[in-house]
């Protein structure tokens, strides 16, 4: 589990094809100091397990299914990625709970400056997923915890403050670029619960049984 607060930008040093996966080597100076083999690391929002460690380089085995569902399938050597180690039980959560399991790949439709400091980004998504978004709610984009500013039929808009823009790979993104999207896990549970509600759910007998009448 992660918080969506990026700790470091890493650089992909090597991508090596394997039979049913790819070995991805990522160099970074900060996270590698404490990382151990078996640890979970969020790489552009994707939860990966450290398979090997050599100095400042961490190696990950990325399975075929993961490659098909996220932007890492098209990643290239020398590309920069957002990194976050998993949460510890004694840590507070500054962003929101992020699982590291990508729901879909969105595409940047617009990048515009709002005033002097804010970058506004519009991201196109599958319209059927828009019910998982609420204004002022949370969404993870390439592992970054962001607040939803507006929602359309097949897109949403986020405003990015200068610190987040510079401390993550968002400053590299352009119109047409793909990004990993993970919707708020609380929204998923809420939607699943509502899908089970039928007209008969709240009958008089149900309300009596649970002490409402």
What do these coordinates show?
- This protein is mainly beta.
- The chain folds into 2 domains: 8-85, Elongation Factor Tu (Ef-tu), domain 3 (Beta Barrel), CATH 2.40.30.20; 104-195, Elongation Factor Tu (Ef-tu), domain 3 (Beta Barrel).
- The protein contains 4 helices and 12 strands; from the N terminus they run E-E-E-E-E-H-E-E-E-E-E-E-H-E-H-H.
- Strands 1-2-5-4-3-6 form a 6-stranded antiparallel barrel. A 6-stranded antiparallel beta barrel has the order 7-8-11-10-9-12.
How are the SSEs placed, and which strands pair?
Layout (H helix, E strand, L loop, with lengths): L7 E10 L3 E7 L12 E4 L2 E9 L2 E7 H6 L10 E6 L18 E11 L3 E7 L13 E4 L2 E8 L3 E6 L1 H6 L10 E6 L1 H11 L8 H6 L4
Antiparallel strand pairs: 1-2, 1-6, 2-5, 3-4, 3-6, 4-5, 7-8, 7-12, 8-11, 9-10, 9-12, 10-11
